[in-house]
Amino acid sequence: MEYDINKIRTLCDRYFDGDTTAEEEQLLREYFNHVKDIPADLRAVKVMMTGMSEAAAMTYSQPAPARKGIVRKIVWGTISAAAAISLFVALSGREVYGYDADGKAITDPDIAFESTKYLSYLSQLEATIDIAQMITQEMENNN
Would residue 25 count as lying in a domain? Predict the structure, then answer.
């Protein structure tokens, strides 16, 4: 099946904003499960979708309502996916510590530890963006 990459990118944006339908989310899952040559800017989304697909097979509670802001949603989505994957690993007894950008299992704890550094950087980025938004709002209020 041929996929329109611009439509996929638009659906990813809408997905992180919480505005996709069940059919659109199914299209995204099909894309990430069937297409082998994923563009670099969508590889992290593939990891999240792949991890979430595995986590969806497990029983878990309804997540908290999503907050506005794409970066914030990506950060929290990544953290949620990492937690779901950790839970999956703990319950299944497999020694998988996470997934790389291509969706392949990480079984080396040192590589997995390196990956957590990137989550820390994303968290710092979120805090920086929050501060910038507060400064911008304050400047707009003063004008």
Answer: no
16 inside domain: no
The answer to whether the CB of 99 falls within 8 A of the CB of 105 is yes
Tokens of 48: 């999240």
Range of the domain at 106: 43-142
- Kindly report the pTM of this predicted structure: 0.39
24 assigned to some structural domain: no
State the total domains in the chain: 1
Angle between helices 22-34 and 5-16 (to 10 degrees): 120
- Residue 87 domain flag: yes
Say which residue the tokens 């659906």 belong to.
Answer: 11
Distance of CA 62 to CAs 16, 70, 72, 80, Å?
A: 16, 20, 18, 12
Confidence bin at 7 (pLDDT 50/70/90): very high
Q: What is the DSSP string of 103-143?
A: SPEE--HHHHHHHHHHHHHHHHHHHHHHHHHHHHHHHHHH-
Residue 44 amino acid letter: A
Query: What would the pLDDT profile of 98-108 be if each residue is shown by its tens digit?
Result: 777 677 777 77
